[in-house]
Amino acid sequence: MNDLHDDLRELLRRKAEEVPTQRLMPRSLARRARGRIAVNALAVGVTVAVFAGGLFAGVRTFGAAHDVNDVDSAGQPPSSAPSTPPAVSKPACTGGQLRATGSMEGAAGSREGGVTLTNFSDTTCTLQGRPTVELLHPNLNPILSGITFLPSPPGWKVDALPKPAGWPVVTIHPGKAAFVRIRWLNWCPDGRAAPLWRLDIPGGGTVDVANGFDELGPPPCNGPGLPSTVEVGPFEPLASSGSTG
Amino acid sequence: MTASDSGRLGELYRAHAAGAVRLAFLLTGDRELAEDLVQDAFVRLAGRLVHLRDPGAFETYLRTTVVNLSHSHFRRARVERAYLARVKATIGRRVEPGADRGLDDREALWQALGRLSRRQRAAIVLRFYEDLPEQEIADILRCRPGTVKSLVSRGLETLRTQIEVRTGE
Lengths: 245, 169
Description:
The complex is a heterodimer.
Chain A: H1 2-17, H2 27-68, E1 98-107, E2 110-119, E3 125-127, E4 132-136, E5 147-151, H3 155-158, E6 170-172, E7 177-185, E8 196-200, E9 206-208, H4 213-216, E10 228-237
Parallel strand pairs in A: 5-10
Antiparallel strand pairs in A: 1-2, 2-7, 3-6, 4-8, 7-10, 8-9
Chain B: H1 3-28, H2 31-46, H3 58-75, H4 77-94, H5 101-114, H6 118-128, H7 134-141, H8 145-168
Helix pairs in contact in B: 1-2, 1-3, 1-6, 2-3, 5-8, 6-8, 7-8
C-alpha cells in the first residue's frame, strides 16, 4: 500500500517538475482580465439599475394604490396625512388657525371648485394629505348616508401645471392660503336643501366652510337613487396666495 | 482595471501561476490545456481581487478554481475527445522498446492515473501532490470528507489493479 503511495508522490512530483517555474503574465491575460472586470462592473450596474427601477416602480405603484384606496368604509377620504410625517420642521396647521371659504362653478351637471384655507394666525404652519370632508344638515347634524367621497388629483395636476415646490407639503405663512380641490355631483332630489361643509384638518380640529358653495347651489340630480359624489383633492398651494411648499 | 490592480494581478501570477499550472497538468495530463485553464482561472479571479481581504486566501481560491475549471473542461465531450487523442499520441511516442524499467513503470502509472474518473484523479492529486487534508479536498470538490476518502481509496484500488495487470502481462 505504502509503495503505491510513494510511487504516486514520486510520479506526481516528477511530472510537476516538467512544468517550468518561471513565468511572466502574458499580455493577453491582462487584457482578458480587464474585459472580465468591465463585464463584472456592467453586470453590477445593470443589477443595481434593475433593482432601483423595480423599487421605484413598486413605490409608485404603492403610492397610486394608496391614493385610490384612501377611502374608508364609509366612503371618506383619509383624514390624516400619509403615514410618514412631513419632513419639515414647521408645525402642522390646526383647524383653529384656518378660515375656509368655498367657491364653485357649474360644469356639465357637476360643481367644480374648492376650498381656500387661509392661515389667519401669526404662525407659519403646514398641511399635508387630504382633509376629511363632512356634509351637514342645516341643523348641523352630519349627513351619514347617501354620499360617496372619492379622492381626486390636485388642481395643479388637473390643470397640467408644474408640481409646486415642496408638494405634498404645503407651508402656509400667516395671511396666506392653501387650497383643496372639490368636485361635487348628483345632489338628489332636485331642490333638496344645500348642505353645510366642514373640513377635518389632519393637524387637529375642524373648520367650517363659511360661504361660497351656496351661491350657485348644489349640482342637479342626474341619478335619482344614486349617492351624491364628492371628490376631494389633497392640500396644495393656492396659486395667488404666495404660500410656499 | 487600474494600474495597481494590474500590478497586483501580475504579482499574484508570478507567485502562483507555476504551481497552478502544475496542478492543472496533473489533473488533466495536458500541458497546453493546463496553461489555458490557469489563465482562465486568473481571469475569473481578477474580477474578485477587490473583494479579496486576505491575500493568503488567493492560493486556495486559485486551487479551487483550477479544479473546477478542469472538471468543466472534461465535461465537454469535444475537449475530452481531443484530450484522449493527444494521450493516445503520447502513449505511442513514449512507450518505446528498450526504455528503462523505472521510466516505463512511471509512465504506466501516469497512464493509469489518466484513466481514473476526473473526481478520483482530482482527489488523488490533491491528496498526494498537494498533501491537502480530507476536509480541504472535500471543500474543493464540494463533497463530504467521507466521499473524499472513498474517491481516494477506490482510485488507489483501480491504479493497483491496473499496475498488477500490466505486471502480469
